[in-house]
Amino acid sequence: MNSNVAVSVPGGDVWLRRLSSVVSLSRAAQEAAAEIMSLGRPIPARDHIIRDGNRETSIKVLISGFACRYKFLPAGRRQITAFVLPGDLCDFGFVSSSPASQGVMALSPSIVGAVDVDRFASIVEEYPDLMAAVLRCAAIEQNATQELLLSLGGRNALQRVGHLLCELHFRMQSAGLLRDGQAFDLPVTQSELGEALGLSTVHVNRTVQTLRKLGLATWRDRVVSLPNPPGLAALSGFDPAYLKSEMA
Amino acid sequence: MNSNVAVSVPGGDVWLRRLSSVVSLSRAAQEAAAEIMSLGRPIPARDHIIRDGNRETSIKVLISGFACRYKFLPAGRRQITAFVLPGDLCDFGFVSSSPASQGVMALSPSIVGAVDVDRFASIVEEYPDLMAAVLRCAAIEQNATQELLLSLGGRNALQRVGHLLCELHFRMQSAGLLRDGQAFDLPVTQSELGEALGLSTVHVNRTVQTLRKLGLATWRDRVVSLPNPPGLAALSGFDPAYLKSEMA
DNA sequence: CGCTCGGTTGACTCGGGTCAAGGCCGGTGG
DNA sequence: CCACCGGCCTTGACCCGAGTCAACCGAGCG
């Protein structure tokens, strides 16, 4: 199903960049981290990266592309619980040696790097800061999930979409993936946005149009640009604090 | 503000029980865990246990009572992100040495045990299983948050309330806190339930009544009983798998 | 060339929010 | 002992944000 070709990683530094944004790493630790994540596997859009309930033997990092974590309701509806951007870990199950509690799927053609958990464990012995970095990433993850919970619990459609766009803008910026003019790629369907935000496709569509009319966001041909970030942040109550890690 | 009286802990074993339900601990590790958590501080209802943004110097465990984690929307609405039951850790910030990203408040008069993080760190050196147990608890926490996200994203009011009651029933059972006849204490107002489920107080009220009429749940005088647990689970799509840890 | 997928639009419906008022305690002070 | 008051629960009337259903368009593709 998936291609098994290993490819060298052009943008492999997103992973290092991510870790460093969260904990300051020694030169040696950086090299160790970079070395273990040097190869990636291409994944076509809509393919699973991790299957729900699977006990993964490797730690997976998105190198390029776009992915999401999700769970299914018994009714059949899919709820997206998080978007995975380049540099992000796909699943944190390994931290507690638990199987994955949710699926991870590529939303656009992606490249995924992997490290064997045992190998990682032995590297971590030598560079404990790496583990600290991973735990920080997990904490930020958790914060993001809770922020989404806030959206579903207390924000209306306009604020939800606006808030998500602000978050993605911020994270893409951190990952160094903004185009010029502050725009960024959002290779996702409106229906998928709705699955994350608890909105119907139709209503996502109308909401996006309202944002455009308000001059707060444009989303065409899979590219989002935010002409007035502070305005959008104000409308949607976005405060990036929850995405930052306090360097103690 | 809070009373500073330290009290001996009658039900201090909920903590041990919780850890053991998640990882099997050696006798020595059990004793170490029990010993560090031998005293608790009483907290009146509505008092803060942890303030948002605070960098906690101790690890706090709810010994008895009932508490919640929450965040505020800019608009002023409060979103409860989790309920904390006896035996549960109040906050996991210490795992990544981050400050608390959310507040924790007692919903009924409670007793909270605490261990200094440094002390805990040194105990963990000797009994790594304890850390494993804590990480498992954190993972389950995360699962619960996501399940709440599923509720807000895709379940209607009846299912949300039903699902939450199923979850609390299950967790109270695990903690050994069921009364006879499968009933359990729920010392929470309908308004607070609404703050967790993204519903107005009024609608929570009507929903609870509907559940009673359906013969699926009764909630009177702060005591919940579920005459037909499988029926309620079916209605609300409850599957306790997400609350269990797979003993590898 | 026709099919499918994603985006767009309109008409209609409804679950749940809001507002407002009343009832039932338990606590407090005169 | 009683009057009062503030939480919390309850109920009714009304309204609106968002879901649903259905149709259409354009683009990519086998």
Envelope shape of chain A: globular
How large, in whole angstroms, is the Cα Rg of chain A?
Answer: 18 Å
In helices, the fraction of residues of chain A equals 40-55%
Beta fraction of chain A: 15-25%
* Protein chain pair with the most extensive contact, residues per chain: A-B, 40 and 40 residues
Question: Helical segment tally of chain A?
Answer: 8
Keywords (chains A, B): DNA-binding, Transcription, Transcription regulation
Pfam families (chains A, B): cNMP_binding, HTH_Crp_2
GO molecular function (chains A, B): DNA binding
Organism (chains A, B): Devosia oryzisoli
Description:
Chains A, B: GO terms for molecular function: DNA binding. Chains A, B: InterPro entries: cNMP-bd_dom, cNMP-bd_dom_sf, HTH_CRP, RmlC-like_jellyroll, WH-like_DNA-bd_sf, WH_DNA-bd_sf. 2 copies of one chain form a homodimer. Chain A has 248 residues and is an alpha+beta fold. Chain A folds into 2 domains: 7-150, Jelly Rolls, CATH 2.60.120; 155-243, Arc Repressor Mutant, subunit A (Orthogonal Bundle), CATH 1.10.10. Chain A contains 8 helices and 9 strands. Chain A has helices at residues 13-20, 27-36, 117-126, 128-154, 157-174, 190-197, 201-213, 229-236, and strands spanning 7-8, 39-43, 48-50, 58-72, 78-84, 103-116, 184-185, 218-220, 223-225. In chain A, the strands form 2 sheets. In chain A, strands 1, 2, 3, 4, 5 and 6 form a 6-stranded antiparallel beta sheet that branches. A 3-stranded antiparallel beta sheet of chain A has the order 7-9-8. In chain A, strand 4 and strand 5 form a beta hairpin. In chain A, helix 5 packs across helix 8 (229-236). Chain A is globular and about 55 Å long. Chain A starts with 6 loop residues before the first strand and ends in a 12-residue tail after the last helix. The model of chain A has no long low-confidence stretch (mean pLDDT 94). Chain A binds chain B through residues 71, 73-75, 77, 79, 81, 92-93, 95-99, 101-102, 132, 135-136, 138-139, 142-143, 145-146, 148-150, 152-155, 197-198, 237, 239, 242, 245-246, 248, and chain B through 71, 73-75, 77, 79, 81, 92-93, 95-99, 101-102, 132, 135-136, 138-139, 142-143, 145-146, 148-150, 152-155, 197-198, 237, 239, 242, 245-246, 248. Chain A binds a DNA duplex (30 and 30 nucleotides) through residues 156-157, 189-191, 199-203, 205-206, 209.
